Structure formats: structure tokens, C-alpha cells
Amino acid sequence: GDSVTQMEGPVTLSEEAFLTINCTYTATGYPSLFWYVQYPGEGLQLLLKATKADDKGSNKGFEATYRKETTSFHLEKGSVQVSDSAVYFCALSTYLGGKIIFGKGTRLHILP
Amino acid sequence: DGGITQSPKYLFRKEGQNVTLSCEQNLNHDAMYWYRQDPGQGLRLIYYSQIVNDFQKGDIAEGYSVSREKKESFPLTVTSAQKNPTAFYLCASSAGQIREGYEQYFGPGTRLTVT
Fold this sequence. Notes:
The structure holds two protein chains of two kinds. Chain A contains no helices and twelve strands.
């Protein structure tokens, strides 16, 4: 079945470091891909998305490119801030009832 | 502003009691979803509804029930049959549009503690 695998955390970086969180997926057809972010005690917020191969989603300095050949959607940011500390979820939509399959999440800690 | 509201933010119940979690959206979305989140785990789908008066079981529906009598409302009842109900519950909605990739919008969540 469809699934999402993302790197386990926690990931700890210093402020202004380069961030990569790896995400790979298994899916039939051509799913849309998402990155969601969850701040402590809150719901999930959509960070960025890509709906077809080679699309690049971007928002708030974060980027991810839909790579069909490697079935990947890695999240990157050139210079992280303390305020980026959160849990990040990679996800795909299955087009079956609009269901979304989430990865287990990666907790990110940014040290000042 | 359009969005999803969940109430209350924190809920405490005694074991053996049913409890209903509220979810309301004013985004005019057709589809709504309930997820459960446990510490260190991803989201697990409990129930979802693509249209009023219709809903389907997700991956962990046992011990839960839902209704969808109005487009904007999708309440979740955690019954006494749910063996481990303490968790963070998230409601989401979606316009259900292929061009949007079926992206979902989430409420702030309700943290349920059962003792």
C-alpha cells in the first residue's frame, strides 16, 4: 500500500545551519506531496506542497522538489531559525476519498 | 476569517464515560476528517466524511463514532469501548479538489485525558 518514510528525529541544529529532512514515498499513480509543520500544542499547518513531478513547493524559506525518479520529497532550508523548531510531517494524498497518508514526523530543535 | 474550530482545547473524563469532541468549519469544505495523535507517533485516521450524511471508517475506528448531519460540523464521540482514549485529537477538512491535491486544513486539536 501507499506509505511515507521520513528520517527519524530529533534533529538538532544551530541557528543559521542548513536543514535537510529526508522523505521518500511509495504510491500507485501520481500522488500530491505535502510538508506540514506542527508547533507545540497546536494543529498541523500546511508548509508547502507539490502536485506533479518536478514541481518545487516553497514557503517561508523552505523548499521541496517532487522527484518521481527517486520517489522523494526532501525538505530543505538554507538558514534555520530558532522559531523553526517544530515537528515536520511529510505526507501524500491518495485520491481515495481525499485521504492523506502521513509520515511519523521529524522533531527539529534549533539552538540559538 | 475562515477556519476550523475544535472545542474544548483540553478535556478530562472518567473511564467508562462517553465524550463528544466538537469540530466546526466555515471553509465550505465537503470533506472532513478525524485523526488521533499519540506522543512520538504520526497521525492515524479515525473516520472521514466526503459528504453530508455519509462517512467511512478509517484505520482505527473501533471505539469511536461520528455523525455528519451538517456540512460544517463533524463531531466525534469517544465511547467507553475505546481501550486507550487518552490522546490528542485533530480534525481536518478538505475542499476535495484534485487541482489542490486534496490538501487538508487542520483545527487546533483537543487533548483528551481519561483517568
